[in-house]
Design goal:
- With 99 residues, the chain is mostly helical.
- The chain contains 2 helices and no strands.
- The protein has one domain.
- Helix content is 91%, strand content 0%.
């Protein structure tokens, strides 16, 4: 279970990095450039569109990471509950074998 947690944590951390550094910063830099050059209206529209798409993609990545985290927590709780039941059954079995 711990090995899977490490893999899932890696995915969640990577998604956080994408949201924080990849999509938002890269597209923001492109939109800030339009104020310092003589771009046409079409180029400004395309850059603004890329910025909006970047925010949308970052939001979608964040939501997916949250969904993965929630499912992992639910599955982990179920697995721990099942492990407790199995331990109880093992203790009962060992007790009944002795007595």
């Amino acid at each position: 279970m711990d090995a899977n947690d490490e893999k899932i944590n890696g995915v969640i951390q990577f998604a956080s990095t994408l949201c924080r550094e990849g999509h938002n910063q890269g597209t923001t830099k492109q939109t800030n450039c339009m104020y310092y050059s003589a771009w046409s209206i079409k180029e400004r529209f395309l850059t603004l569109n890329m910025f909006v798409v970047g925010i949308f993609v970052a939001d979608k990545i964040g939501k997916k990471a949250d969904s993965i985290r929630e499912r992992r927590d639910i599955n982990r709780k179920k697995a721990l509950d099942q492990m407790e039941k199995l331990k109880d059954q093992l203790q009962l079995h060992q007790y009944l074998q002795v007595h």
